[in-house]
């Protein structure tokens, strides 16, 4: 198993190991009884051995023992699931994960969707990182942070999976899922991420990279991304003031089965025999265009 880089991942690993210990214990008991029966109760003559029916102690054991095993496994699973899905701790970083056919967009926001709903507002995107099947996006996190993820999809079911988290969660259209992790200290490095749900022809290309940075490096990266987003927002505002067409107008996340704003842009602004990069990759709004809204 990969070494978990989150506190929640360590809990998953412990549950997995405990389940295998229980499975091996049951297996050893069952195979031991089988071997014992084969050796000590093999056929020795044609005489029919004594027939014993309705052995109540053994039948009670057959009933009670599986119930006890299942109850114990259920208890630890329910306990750990409750802890893994808890979002009560205040997050240091809020990221909206948008999975689409066939790549990812990571929107760094000022608060989670749940917090915004409680305040009757909408979360504001500070900056975004978007990818295409040809160019994998990079999700950057700071070690030691509590990170809140909001998961959403505009088309089909995907699954957000970082093996180093030892945890994955489905990204379902019209149903926002969420979870939190606490990134361990001393885990700075690069890790793989991918979609774990068969979502279409280019499912295997839905890859991304997770980069965990030390606090100083992460803060410098965030400052750079925010400055870049502000510059692009200012350029968009100047274009609008001068009467130029907003490059982001009419472009939105792709809809189910190719429906939605992406299709309209292709019909109105693009010749039928020519595809734009956005149409070819079904990519969502770029960071600057999202910030420009």
TrEMBL record:
<dbReference type="InterPro" id="IPR036257">
    <property type="entry name" value="Cyt_c_oxidase_su2_TM_sf"/>
</dbReference>
<dbReference type="InterPro" id="IPR045187">
    <property type="entry name" value="CcO_II"/>
</dbReference>
<dbReference type="InterPro" id="IPR008972">
    <property type="entry name" value="Cupredoxin"/>
</dbReference>
<dbReference type="InterPro" id="IPR002429">
    <property type="entry name" value="CcO_II-like_C"/>
</dbReference>
<feature type="compositionally biased region" description="Acidic residues">
    <location>
        <begin position="259"/>
        <end position="278"/>
    </location>
</feature>
<keyword id="KW-0812">Transmembrane</keyword>
<keyword id="KW-0186">Copper</keyword>
<feature type="transmembrane region" description="Helical">
    <location>
        <begin position="20"/>
        <end position="39"/>
    </location>
</feature>
<feature type="domain" description="Cytochrome oxidase subunit II copper A binding">
    <location>
        <begin position="90"/>
        <end position="224"/>
    </location>
</feature>
<keyword id="KW-0479">Metal-binding</keyword>
<feature type="region of interest" description="Disordered">
    <location>
        <begin position="113"/>
        <end position="132"/>
    </location>
</feature>
<feature type="region of interest" description="Disordered">
    <location>
        <begin position="224"/>
        <end position="293"/>
    </location>
</feature>
<dbReference type="InterPro" id="IPR001505">
    <property type="entry name" value="Copper_CuA"/>
</dbReference>
<comment type="similarity">
    <text>Belongs to the cytochrome c oxidase subunit 2 family.</text>
</comment>
<keyword id="KW-1278">Translocase</keyword>
<keyword id="KW-0249">Electron transport</keyword>
<comment type="function">
    <text>Subunits I and II form the functional core of the enzyme complex. Electrons originating in cytochrome c are transferred via heme a and Cu(A) to the binuclear center formed by heme a3 and Cu(B).</text>
</comment>
<keyword id="KW-0472">Membrane</keyword>
<keyword id="KW-0813">Transport</keyword>
<feature type="domain" description="Cytochrome oxidase subunit II transmembrane region profile">
    <location>
        <begin position="1"/>
        <end position="88"/>
    </location>
</feature>
<keyword id="KW-0679">Respiratory chain</keyword>
<dbReference type="InterPro" id="IPR014222">
    <property type="entry name" value="Cyt_c_oxidase_su2"/>
</dbReference>
<keyword id="KW-1133">Transmembrane helix</keyword>
<protein>
    <recommendedName>
        <fullName>cytochrome-c oxidase</fullName>
        <ecNumber>7.1.1.9</ecNumber>
    </recommendedName>
</protein>
<feature type="transmembrane region" description="Helical">
    <location>
        <begin position="60"/>
        <end position="78"/>
    </location>
</feature>
<dbReference type="Pfam" id="PF00116">
    <property type="entry name" value="COX2"/>
</dbReference>
<dbReference type="InterPro" id="IPR011759">
    <property type="entry name" value="Cyt_c_oxidase_su2_TM_dom"/>
</dbReference>
